[in-house]
Design a protein that fits this description.
Layout (H helix, E strand, L loop, with lengths): L1 H11 L5 H27 L2 H9 L5 H11 L3 H13 L1
Helix pairs in contact: 2-4, 2-5, 3-4
Length: about 90
């Protein structure tokens, strides 16, 4: 039974290599840049997200778009911080 549990644990959490960690960091930075660009676009022109929210039928679309926009540029920083914790 212990052998089976060890094999299951190894399958669920395989040993990580530096190459795997580097690859994950690159992927997370790539995604983070996409989040940054999206958030920057929302901050530069709040009318587009407002119109989109209005087309979805969200109540008070402008009031919903204002707090949503500033968080998008922070997303890459959060992803990068998580990546550093994985490498450490």
């Amino acid at each position: 039974m212990k052998v089976l549990n060890a094999k299951i644990a190894e399958w669920l959490a395989p040993e990580r290599t530096y190459l795997q960690s580097l690859l994950l960091l690159i992927i997370r930075l790539y995604w983070g840049w996409g989040f940054f660009e999206t958030g920057k676009g929302k901050l530069m022109d709040v009318q587009k997200p407002t119109a989109f929210f209005q087309s979805l039928g969200i109540p008070f679309p402008h009031a919903q778009a204002i707090p949503a926009a500033p968080w998008m540029p922070w997303s890459p920083r959060l992803v990068f911080a998580q990546s550093l914790s994985v490498l450490g």
